Amino acid sequence: MSVSVLRIRDDLVRRIQAHGVETYPHECCGALLGHDGDGSREVIDLLPLSNRRHDSPRNRFELASGDVRLAEKTACEKQLELLGWYHSHPDAPARPSEFDREHAWPWYSYIIVSVQKGEPRDMTSWRLHDDRAAYDSEAIEMVGQSPQPV
Amino acid sequence: MVVKVIIPTPLRAYAAKQESVELQASTVGEALASLTSRYQELRKHLYADDGRLRSFVNVYVNDEDIRYLQKDQTRLREGDTVSIVPSIAGGASD
Q1: How far apart are alpha carbons B42 and A29 in whole angstroms?
Q2: Domains identified in chain A, total number
Q3: Percent of chain B whose pLDDT exceeds 90
Q4: Can you give the CATH number for the domain in which A123 is found?
């Protein structure tokens, strides 16, 4: 099975990392907005959101249906699509947990950034398998803000 | 009653890529049963093993969350819109 690709500008990567650092030791979360293509996607913008799991923010995040509707509306206004979500794993690896898997939706890209002792580390992306049993890894391809010099 | 069911983006691949589906139903429960009967691949993403809607699946009739109405017994009227709206949740292992 071919691995899908998620393209994202380096400044957006830094914004996700910064969000994770800002909320550390709690999980951050937000929406990924962009374009979906055949075999690859491109993240064009982010919508940082507030984690609604006030009871357990160190290892859980949640976004309500109102947040999802806001993300969809924002995407539509920007003529983009809601591609998925990002969240951080404070002092934990950038890998989907069993809890992540149980609560995931198919089709969405899920970016996870590990934030260790307040410092951003690995960033990975995943899509839930059709049978819900596992995730498919998505290759993150970072693109610069301007064309590379020849 | 003929009602429209709005399919969220992550589930459209399992509903013949449709954004919405029209079907006959008198209650929300009937509408979702009809939907998952027509598109069986939707079932595992909407329902847990115990047959209940997954906790992160929200259903609205027009703009009202069925949790604050009669849940799956909520009665539908001709032309109502039933929207399936995700909540998003996750987190690191303990």
Answers
A1: 26
A2: 1
A3: 91
A4: 3.40.140.10
